[in-house]
Design goal:
With 231 residues, the chain is mainly β. It contains 2 helices and 13 strands; from the N terminus they run ββββββββββββααβ. It has one domain: Jelly Rolls (Sandwich). Strands 1-10-3-4-5-6-13 form a 7-stranded antiparallel beta sheet. Strands 9-8-7-2-11-12 form a 6-stranded antiparallel beta sheet. A hairpin with a 2-residue loop joins strand 11 and strand 12. The N terminus is likely disordered.
């Protein structure tokens, strides 16, 4: 189920409710992400890696800036994402990107350009969704292939909601001349995690994170990316 919005946005806060492919979903990936175009694209990813029936889905997140990603973090979920709809949210403002599940933050990627870390902020992005075959890598590194006898594979989406600054002719709808009422509506432009949300984030990292690029020494033999010093 591929899809896209018609307008490009420069900053973003959204909620989407998804119910993932039930049963044997091995080899499939249900994706929900923001992306720009071109060879130096920006991208913010939610990807749900299917698995054999009874095994948990893996929630795969990544952040691309200027065409470079390699910032993967993966999580198990604390519920069955195929049994009912759950809300997956992306907050993208000039200071940070926050991934949340049912209102619980699972990942924060801060703007650390002062440390030389590229941050997606200069390219307008669109929202996409898809359900695709990725059995060369999605399940156990590609060891488990898609069982096409289980087709059709179906993921369900509902209750999409978003606030965004829309680019038009090089001008953002969230410019400095916005009215007070517009500024209140766009309070998410400076939103950050409070102490309660920080505690929830640490709970997820402690109990449900299964991969963090910032701890993968084999992948970065010359040293971890600079943002890992603060994670």
């Amino acid at each position: 189920m591929p899809g896209t919005l018609q307008e490009s946005v420069s900053v973003w806060k959204d909620d989407m409710q998804l119910k993932l492919v039930p049963g044997n979903s091995a080899g499939t990936v249900t994706a929900y992400y923001l992306s720009s175009k071109g060879s130096t694209w920006d991208e913010i990813d939610f990807e749900f890696l299917g698995n054999l029936s009874g095994d948990p889905y893996i929630l795969h997140t990544n952040v691309f800036s200027q065409g470079k990603g390699n910032r993967e973090q993966q999580f198990y979920l604390w519920f069955d994402p195929t049994a009912d709809f759950h809300t997956y949210s992306i907050l993208w403002n000039p200071q940070r990107i926050i991934f949340s599940v049912d209102g619980t933050p699972i990942r924060e990627f801060k703007n650390l350009e002062s440390m030389g870390v590229p941050f997606p902020k200069n390219q307008a992005m669109r929202i996409y969704s898809s359900l695709w075959n990725a059995d060369d890598w999605a399940t156990r590194g590609g060891l488990v292939k898609t069982d096409w006898s289980q087709a059709p594979f179906t993921a369900s989406y509902r209750n999409f909601n978003a606030n965004a600054c829309v680019w038009s002719n090089g001008v953002s709808s969230c410019g400095t001349n916005s009215s007070p009422s517009t500024s209140r509506t766009n309070s998410w432009l400076s939103e950050e995690l409070d102490s309660t949300s920080q505690e929830k984030l640490q709970w997820v990292r402690k109990n449900y994170m299964i991969y963090n690029y910032c701890t993968d020494a084999k992948r970065f033999p010359q040293g971890f990316p600079p943002e890992c010093k603060l994670s």
